[in-house]
Each structure stands twice: as C-alpha cells, then as structure tokens.
Amino acid sequence: MPKIPPQYTYRRSADQESTRVVHHPVIVVGAGPSGLSAAIDLAGCGIPAVLLDDNNTVSTGSRAICFAKRTLEIWDRLGCAAPMLEKGIVWQLGKVFFRDAQVYQFNLLPEGGHKMPAFINLQQYYVEEFLVDRVHELPAIDLRWKNRVTNVVQRGDVVALEIETPDGSYTLTCDWLIAADGANSPIRESLGVRAHGQEFHDQFLICDITMQAGFPTERWFWFDPPFHPGHSVLLHRQPDNVWRVDFQIGADADPADALRIENITPRINAMLGERKWNLEWASAYTFRCRKLDRFVHGRVVFVGDAAHQVSPFGARGANGAVQGVENLIWKLVRVLRGEASPALLATYDDERQYGARENLLNSTRATDFISPKSAISGVFRDSVLLLAKRYPFARALVNSGRLSVPCGYDDSPLNTPDVDDFSALARPGSACPDAAMIGHGRAGWLLEALGGGFVLLVVGIEVPDALRHVADLTVLELGSDLVDVNADLARRYDLADGGAYLIRPDQHVAARWRRLHEADVLRAMRRALGFDLEDVS
Amino acid sequence: MNGLNVEANFDDADGFYVALIDAHRGLSDAASAALNARLILLLANHIGTMTVLYDALDKARAPIDEENSP
Questions:
Q1: Tell me: the pLDDT tens digits for A269-292?
Q2: Mutation target vs A (from B28, B38, B43; most A CBs, 10 A cutoff)
Q3: For B38, how many CA atoms within 13 A lie in the half-sphere containing its CB?
Q4: Which ipTM was obtained for this model?
Q5: Architecture of domain A14-89+118-194+292-365
Q6: Quick one: which of A65, A79, A66, A8 has its CA closest to A37?
Q7: CATH topology of domain A436-536
Q8: What is the pTM of this model?
Q9: Is B41 part of the contact surface with chain A (CB cutoff 8 Å)?
Q10: I need a surface site. Which of A93, A293, A386, A505 has the fewest CB within 10 A?
Q11: Alpha-carbon distance A447 to A43, whole Å?
Q12: B33 touches chain A (CB under 8 A)
C-alpha cells in the first residue's frame, strides 16, 4: 500500500487579524528539507522563526532518497535523526554492470567509531514528516501551511512579503528572509535574481515500485543493459519494500508517453522478469546544474534548491542543501544576537559557493560519464567500463555518481591556518570527524558532546581560567569531561597532551595548536566570528 | 622536472611503431578507435601524474590546432 501523506491544518494566524503589519526577526519560506532544518536550527538557538509553506503536506513522491552521514549528524544535533535512522535503510554495497555483465562492485565499508552510517535510504516524504514532527515540538517555530508568498520587496534593512492564504492575503515584514522555496523559487523570480549554469536535455524516468522481495539492499547501476539498450538504469532500495528504478530515456523521448502505465510495464518487466510489482509513483524529469552568483541579496538569503541545483548523481542535492543551511544558521544567529560581525554573513556565501561549486563539478562530471556527449566520449566511456572488468585502475574512472561527502572549507577566511605540524584529516575548515566517547559515565559520541556552540577541545593541560568564562565557548577536557575509549579521537585529530582544537558551532574546525595559549584561542574565535573581515573590507 | 619527457625514451623505437600498427591490423575504424582509447587509458594510468598528463594533452592538441588553422 502506498503511504498516505499527512495533511496538515491551515490555521488563521493572529498576524492576519492585526490592523498593522507585523514584524518578525526571521521568516523562512518553504517547508522542504532546507526550510524545516533552518527553522529547527534557529529555534534551537532561541531565535523564533515564522515558516511559510504554500502547501499543507510533505513531498509528493520519494524524490531525494539518499541521506549522507554529515546530513544525519546535523539532523541529530537538531534532535530529529532517531526516527530517520529507525525507518531508513542502511546500505553499503554498490554494483556496476555494463551490457550483460557485472563490471565490479564497491563497498562503502564504514569505518567504526562513528555514530552515523555512511548513508541511509529514506523517501523525502518521510524525512519531511519527521522534520515537521520535530517542528511541532518547538514552540519557537510558527509553521503556517497554505501561506503562499506572492511578492517580496526589500526596503533598506526590512523585507516585506505579501502572502496569500485561504482567508485572503496579508503582509509581513522581517529583518531576514530565508528563501528555501525550491528549484523554481518564486522569491528568486520576485527579486529578479537569475541562476547560471547548464541545462541537460537527457530525460530520466523514475518509477518507484513495491516488491515483496527478491533483491538485496544494494545500489545497482547499469550502463547499456540488454533490457534497456543504449541507456543507463539505477536500482536502489527504500523502506516499505519500495524500489527506485531510474531509467535514462534520452533527449528525444516524449515524457507523457513514457509515463503511461502501458509503457512503464514492459520496461520494468524486461528488467525484473517474472517478479510481481506495483507502481507507487512515477515521474519524468530533466535536470539542471546551476547556482546563483551570490546567495545573499541584501536581507534575503537563498538556501537549498533555490540557491543551487545539481544532477541527482551523487546524492548532492538535499545533502548539500542541509549542509548549507547549517553553515548559514549559526552565523545568522550570532549576527542577530550582536555577537558576530555583520560581515560573518558574507562567509555563508564564500563557504557555500565553494561547496556548491564542488557539488556542481562532481555531479556534472558524473552526468558527462553517464550521458556521453560525443561519439569519442562514448568510445572512452565504454572502454573504461570494459577495462574496469579486468583491471582495478579503470574502476576509479567509472562514474555513476560521486557520493556526497562533507565539504571542507579549506580556504575559508574564518580559518586560522595551522602553525604546528598536524595530520590532514581534521585540518581547519573540515567537518569534525566523530569518535566514540564516554562522558559522565555514559557511552556516547564526540559530535553529541560538541553541541551547537564554540568548543575548545583540550587534552592534558591546565586551561586558563579566562577561557572558561568566554561567552558561547565550552571547554571540553579529554580525560575528564570525555574519555576517548578507543583512542579514535587522538588518532583522527592527531591530538596529544598539550594540544587543543577550536571548533565552530557548525562542528567544523576553526583552529588547532600543539600548545595552548589563551590569546591564540581568543584571536581565532574572533576570526571565526568574522571580526577580521571588517579590517579587510 | 615534472613535465612530459619529449626526449627519446624508447628501448626500441622501430619495434614499438611496428607493434602499434600491427595491433590495429584488420580492425574496423570503430574497433581501432576503441583500441586506441584502451591504450590511452592504460598508459595514462601508468603515468598517473596530472602535470605530465596535462602537458601531454596540451602537446597532443597543439599540432591538431595547427593542422586545422588556415
């Protein structure tokens, strides 16, 4: 049975009764993975958020189905990963086929000592439902369904929104507007902001089917299989015995025709043989790889698909979006509280433009491998696949999507460059690797202990008293606050007695030292809050 | 130097040339193109170093541009 989507209730807001225009510090538009995560993160930092959505339910169809470790770590900090892990499917084995034979298989082989798996598969509608459940636990979020934004105007430091509801329209103003209103972002249109990039004409047909059994929990990718010659096919499992089948159907296919059940049935039967299946959802799509030149426009900040879009190969859409939201929110919160330089907001653009370029590059490269654009690129593609069957070196060239890994902000102006010799893994700008810990007598994880403020992680030293009284900075002492049970932390962070790490609120490394000096820590924290940027500009 | 070696480096230059031409004997144009692709991929992996590979791509492309220019 297909899952019945939840229907949320439109409620008339007091703001609609008000005779004057009501002002809010932050309004988020769009209750998809990005907007919901943004509102939850804000609420967790004590900033009230109004969240507007033009619909009253979750995503139609499974859409994004692969959620990466870093995304799960972020959602865990936001208090909503547990139901996702419980419902989601963990997979680690991938197989690649060319024509009628398997070329090779790969294993994501998760390293031990991390709370989160490398990936889970979970339909986007479940993800959104769990995020909405979390929103309902947070009184600081005012989630308004069936509130469609029809116009946005910026006047100085104030953003005004016209909003249409079943009870007519009303106006709100805010200091900051987070535009999470999707790939076709009406706010983007309203402000006349354009996305730049590449449009791909190759079309794909997604069929979500239910099967009782028959295939293992693996990612199977075919190039030019006998049951769908000349094109690629992806098969990937989701919860509830739902399987994603993604057929490449070429630039010339008629999408309406491809979606007819009498045309879907023979395609799937050719692939699955005698197995019984039911169609849950089908969708034909093309994709774009594009982004805005700037994500911050005055007091309007674009996140998620409204800011950047990638091809689906590599699961970089929703995963990149959630990492971008996390990058934004800690900065916005500290600017709102007056604890950071207003220039800090501009580094959301620096760091996430870098992240978006990385995601675009990877997804465009995968697209070029999957859909060769010239005869000779087809010859090389097929040669790579044939060689990969026999020789390990060619497997490195096979590209059916480079799966999302956390973006390291190596060149960020917020980093304090290393002055001491350290191994590369936890270098400044990178996302903190997790490690198993015992804290206060309980088994747990490093990332849980880091929470969502600045952290000074130290081992084997007396911490100067002054550092214990810095606002927004928590000192964690290895050995007393936390016990590094398997020495994973010491290894992953290359951390020995006397050393220290300064960690940003988004759990990226800001600075690290072999010897701790109070002044270095304070200077690095000011830098991570954007105060050095003021001198430059 | 980490660029491409363009000085003579073959053990047996004539022997290699004959072996290369022989490898294509009796192949259709498509099969020849595929053989060349496999050969390039095998050799490129053996070299491995990006600076050398970029240098080789530049040098391989340069005379083609000359041929095509009026």
A1: 999 888 899 999 999 999 899 999
A2: B38
A3: 18
A4: 0.92
A5: 3-Layer(bba) Sandwich (3.50)
A6: A79
A7: Glutaredoxin (3.40.30)
A8: 0.94
A9: yes
A10: A293
A11: 20
A12: yes
